[in-house]
Structure formats: C-alpha cells, structure tokens
C-alpha cells in the first residue's frame, strides 16, 4: 500500500530498496524529544492564533506527551515504513487521538521541522561541549597550579629548546581549549534562530506567529529567510569544524602524553585507570586511551569533510541529501564527548615525574640562550655576536662531553674574555625560567598570573 502520510498520488508502496535508502528512522529517532517539543510549541501557537481549536491543541499535546513517555520507556515501536522520526510520531499521534492529529502539520513541513529538531539537538550538544571543555580547562588549571615551578624542557622541532615550567606548558593547553570553548559560544549565538514556520521553503499563508514559537523553544528570534532556513546546515558544519579543531588540540595533547610516558622520556606516569597492559609483554603499560583520543580525530575530521561534501553542490532549498547530515554530527559529537572526558581523566590522574623533567631540562644546552642574553646584558655584546660566542661555547662543551655549566671558567674566558664567574648564576634551569618574566612568559610568577586570569573566567 502507499505511504499513509504522502501517499495520495501514489498507487503502490515503495520498493524495498527505496525504503532502505530513504529511511532515516534508524538514526533520527535520536531527535524524538526535540521533535515532540517542537510539535507542542507549534500546536500551541496554532491554537493561540486561532488556526486550530483549543480542544484539538489539548488533544495533540496530551497525545504527544503520551508518545514521549512511550519512547522513553522503550514501549514505542519505530517503523521503517514511516521513514523518519517526524512521521513515526505523527502516525502514532493519529492512532492515539484520531483526526485532530492531522491538524498538527498545518503551516509546517518536514523541511522546517527537521531543521528545528536538528538545531535544537546541536544547540544542546554544544552546551554539553562547552561544559566538558570547562571541565578539561579546570583540570589543567589545577595541574598548572601544582606545577607552576616544575621545570621541564621546552621543545621546538621536538628538540630541546629552552627550559619552561610544566605549569606553563599546561597553560598553553588551557589557551587552546579556551579558544575552542569560545568558538562553541560564538556558534551557539549564531545558531540561536528558530526555523519553524519557514514551512516547505516559501513560508505559509496561515497567520502564524513565529516569534511566539521562537520564544517558546528558547531561541533568541525566528530565522529571517524561509529559503535559507530549510537549506541551511551551517550550524552543523560549524559544530563539526569546532569539533575538528578541538579534536586536533586533543590529538596533539594525546601525542605528547604518548611521548612523555615512554621510558625514554619518562616525564609522566599514566594512572592504571587510563592505561592497559600487553597480553605478551609483562612489563608494558600502554597509553591506549591517549592513542584512541588521537585516533578519534580521524573520525571527527571525516565527519566534517563528509558533510561539507554533501552540502557543496546542493541547489536551494531542501534536498534529501541533507538527511545525511545527522549521522556525521551524532558520531562526531559522541567521539568528541568521549575524547574530552578521557583526556580530562588522564590529565587529572597523571603523575608528573619532576626529577626526570628537570634532568632533561638541563641537557641539550637548553640554557645557551641564557648565556647569550648574559653576554648582551653584562658584556654589552650585540645579540648576534653573543649568539656566535655562545655557539662556540656549546661546541666546546659538546667536545668535552659536558654541560655548559660544567665548563671551567678558563675555558669560557678563552671563548670570550668578558665572561666572569657570575655567568654560572644564569646557567641553571631554575634561573633560566625565573628570568623569563616578560608578559606571557614561563616565569613561575607569570604562570600564576595566567592561572588567576583563567580562574576568573571559568
Ligand atoms: N528525514 C528527512 C531529513 O532528515 C526529513 C525531511 C524530509 N523532507 C522531505 N521533503 N522529504 O532530512
């Protein structure tokens, strides 16, 4: 038999393959709560405007509440023949309340309905993302506070560069996840327009009140252009873009955790809760959670590219292609939530091996810049000359197989006679980080200033 929702001009029902490619109920049932909320607001508005009677509205609302309860208790039977969540709910409503159900879809199309449901869902999800990011930032702030003075090597090209503090390194991630959080907030503000009432694409002749539904559904205002409203999936693309950038940050952090937890680095120890053993090598403790966070980035990036590709050739307004938006967003959302949660746990639980960090910080001539700066300050050398002199000192130390601070004064003076024994005061890693007092620098005082700034904005 033909479809009961739109079957008026169809003589026979869909082919089985057609049903399979067309149906979205398998995944869009996730939108049931948003769908029912939207329908209740729409029905209330229709009644308020005198488009349907108050009695019909009351029946519709009561029926929708029953359906919500049925779905939430697992008693609702979803049907693939009814394609999607919208028609599953409406068909059940008709079974529950009869002809009044048929009045709900007045001045509405599935095109504005799905735009509404999906916007509501993405908006709620971004609220969760914002909260999760705040939790991760807060974990980093605690670790940064604890380790504002803990010296570790800073790297460029993954080669030892200059000593920094672990607190400062943590605060770099706070900045990154803070930007992600601010992108989420911006996206929520842009998304905050209500699509319902755009109808199929052209609006409607019924005297609807879109400001009323917008307000009832917690949106700032209604969307302004009905064609754009049913064509637009920018809010989903923005969520995926934000997710991809955040996942990139999580992946870089995951990579550092993987490197730092190797015996060769040994900067951190992961808690048992966030590592696994090997089935053959008894000594192993593997950073699986970090690796999986790193890998989730692939799925999330994939989701962004998939939806961009779905959207790129679509003429205005709605095309069925857009039904492919949901699985990408749902999968990316789940992956991102899980990745942030796992990372927050790892950051909170990991043990910092300050002794190992400090030992590594002092190796690789990490205070060479401090020697050059000292020559500028104390001996009045131009920086470029000081750089050259220091380079010769490093070469000498390398030849001797020792650190800069272990070169006898006579050797340093042979490189440049202006060097005095006061230079040894700047060659320690502690002196090095303490000297970096420029705004935003790694000096412990500066790290504490950053922490205070963020605590006020948590
Ligand atoms: N299941 C559809 C989607 O997810 C709902 C909108 C269908 N609209 C239509 N005109 N067929 O996009």
Automatic annotation (TrEMBL):
Database matches in SUPFAM superfamilies: L-aspartase-like (SSF48557)
Residue stretches making up the Fumarate lyase N-terminal domain: 8-302
Protein name: Argininosuccinate lyase
Molecular function in Gene Ontology: argininosuccinate lyase activity
Sequence ranges assigned to domain Argininosuccinate lyase C-terminal in this UniProt record: 365-434
Subcellular location, record wording: Cytoplasm
Record bears the keyword Membrane: no
Pathway where it operates: Amino-acid biosynthesis; L-arginine biosynthesis; L-arginine from L-ornithine and carbamoyl phosphate: step 3/3
Keyword terms, alphabetized: Amino-acid biosynthesis, Arginine biosynthesis, Cytoplasm, Lyase
CDD domains linked: Argininosuccinate_lyase (cd01359)
Main location: cytoplasm
Entry's family note: Belongs to the lyase 1 family. Argininosuccinate lyase subfamily.
InterPro entries found in the cross-reference section: Arg_succ_lyase_C (IPR029419), Argininosuccinate_lyase (IPR009049), Fumarase/histidase_N (IPR024083), Fumarate_lyase_CS (IPR020557), Fumarate_lyase_fam (IPR000362), Fumarate_lyase_N (IPR022761), L-Aspartase-like (IPR008948)
Keyword Cytoplasm tagged: yes
EC number(s) on file: 4.3.2.1
HAMAP family, alphabetized: Arg_succ_lyase
Recorded catalytic activity of this chain's protein: 2-(N(omega)-L-arginino)succinate = fumarate + L-arginine
């Amino acid at each position: 038999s033909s479809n009961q929702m739109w079957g008026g001009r169809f003589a026979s029902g869909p082919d089985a393959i057609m049903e399979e490619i067309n149906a979205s109920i398998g995944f869009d049932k996730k939108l049931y709560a948003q769908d029912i909320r939207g329908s209740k607001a729409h029905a209330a508005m229709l009644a308020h405007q005198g488009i349907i009677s108050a009695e019909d509205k009351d029946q519709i609302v009561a029926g929708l509440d029953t359906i919500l309860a049925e779905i939430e208790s697992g008693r609702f039977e979803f049907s693939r023949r009814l394609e999607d969540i919208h028609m599953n709910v409406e068909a059940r409503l008709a079974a529950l309340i009869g002809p009044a159900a048929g009045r709900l879809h007045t001045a509405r199309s599935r095109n504005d309905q799905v735009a509404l449901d999906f916007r509501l869902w993405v908006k709620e999800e971004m609220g969760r993302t914002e909260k999760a990011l705040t939790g991760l930032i807060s974990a980093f702030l605690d670790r940064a506070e604890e380790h504002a003075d803990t010296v570790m090597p800073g790297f460029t090209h993954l080669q030892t560069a200059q000593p920094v503090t672990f607190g400062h390194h943590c605060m770099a991630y706070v900045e990154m996840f803070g930007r992600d959080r601010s992108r989420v907030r911006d996206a929520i503000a842009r998304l905050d327009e209500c699509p319902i009432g755009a109808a199929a694409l052209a609006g409607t002749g019924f005297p609807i009140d879109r400001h009323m539904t917008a307000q009832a559904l917690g949106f700032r205002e209604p969307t302004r252009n009905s064609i754009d409203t049913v064509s637009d999936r920018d809010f989903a693309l923005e969520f995926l873009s934000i997710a991809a950038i955040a996942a990139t940050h999580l992946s870089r952090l995951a990579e550092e955790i993987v490197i730092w937890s190797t015996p060769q680095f040994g900067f951190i120890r992961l808690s048992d809760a966030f590592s696994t053993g090997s089935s053959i090598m008894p000594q192993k403790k593997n950073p699986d959670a970090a690796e999986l966070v790193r890998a989730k980035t692939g799925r999330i990036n994939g989701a962004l590219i998939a939806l961009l590709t779905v959207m790129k050739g679509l003429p205005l307004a709605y095309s069925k292609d857009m039904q492919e938006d949901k699985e990408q967003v749902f999968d990316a959302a789940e992956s991102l939530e899980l990745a942030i949660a796992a990372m927050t746990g790892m950051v909170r639980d990991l043990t910092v091996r300050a002794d190992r960090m400090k030992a590594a910080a002092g190796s690789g001539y990490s205070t060479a810049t401090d020697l050059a700066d000292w020559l500028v300050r104390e001996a009045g050398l131009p920086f470029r000359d000081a750089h050259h002199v220091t380079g010769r000192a490093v070469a000498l130390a390398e030849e001797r197989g020792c650190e800069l601070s272990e070169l006898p004064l006579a050797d340093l003076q042979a490189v440049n006679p202006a060097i005095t024994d006061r230079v040894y005061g700047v060659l320690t890693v502690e002196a090095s980080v303490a000297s970096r007092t420029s705004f935003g620098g790694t000096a412990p005082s500066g790290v504490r200033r950053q922490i205070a700034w963020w605590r006020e904005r948590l």
